[in-house]
Amino acid sequence: MALRIKECNEDKDRYGVPREKPEITRQSPKEEKIALFKSLFRGRNDAYPVRWESKTGKSGYSPACAYEWDPIMCEKPRKKCADCANRKLLPLTDQVIHNHLTGKCTIGIYPLLQDDTCWFLAADFDKNTWKDDVIAFLDTCNELHVPAVLERSRSGQGGHVWIFFKEVLPAELARKLGSTLMTLTMKKRHGIGLDSYDRFFPNQDTLPNRGFGNLIALPMQRKPRTQGNALFINRDFQPHEDQWA
After folding, report:
1. What is the pTM of this model?
2. Which residues of 125-135 are buried (b: 16+ CB within 10 A; e: fewer)?
3. Ranges for the TOTE conflict system primase domain (predicted)?
């Protein structure tokens, strides 16, 4: 454990420190907001997942594809997207991000890059005790001088703790950082545990063949935002007045 803590603290300029950015507020032009959004939530640019919902209420995410449900080119549901030879992935563009923020679509991000690196680590908490657990986890981050921000999830029934890196890191190292923070948090809680903790994003050290790794939903989509969800919140679980500041 001591070795892992040393490894995760020997260069604080590398991670846990948000990159320098110009002052942006909710009054800033949309181009500046999108640029800030892209500078923080960095993942695969050549592909992104888009949320869908069926007539029966079932929902999920699929890679955005130019041929989705094309009667000739699309092989769903016979084949998964990862196994489709015809798939034509759509890139993540400024317009797609704008559509997400304005409620025209809901997207996520694939945090694990093709060289097994990442720009952020996110911890997911989603059960009844998520508020107590997430505060304990944030306290550990603060004690180790790892800046972290809290977002209420899209459902409102959980939270994401985001740690942004100043430079790209091996996913294995990023996940070691998260594991160290989680282990120290559990030790402080004296056996109570962190039942609401679900997983880290990225969820893998290496990228699966032809796959994308686990996705995480991006915050600030307009529809849940109107309900106080998918927003960054303070330790009292109240949304920050200006989400862009």
Report:
1. 0.88
2. bbeeebbebbe
3. 32-245
Q: Does some domain include residue 127?
A: yes
What's the average model confidence in pLDDT over 190-198? Answer: 78
- Which tens digits make up the pLDDT trace of 41-53? 999 999 999 999 9
In a domain, 203, yes or no: yes
Query: What residue type is 15 in one-letter code?
Result: Y
Distance, in Å, from the CA atom of 176 to the CA atom of 121, rounded to the nearest integer, reads: 10
pLDDT of residue 76: 83
Rounded to 5°, the CA angle 23-43-194 comes to: 90
Tell me the one-letter amino acid at 152: R
What is the average pLDDT across 68-86?
Answer: 84
Measured distance CA(190)–CA(187) in Å, rounded: 6
Kindly tell me the burial class for residue 16, based on how many C-beta atoms sit within 10 Å of its own C-beta (0-12, 13-18, 19 or more): buried
Domain extent, residue 129, equals: 2-29+113-233
Q: Report DSSP state, residue 69.
A: T
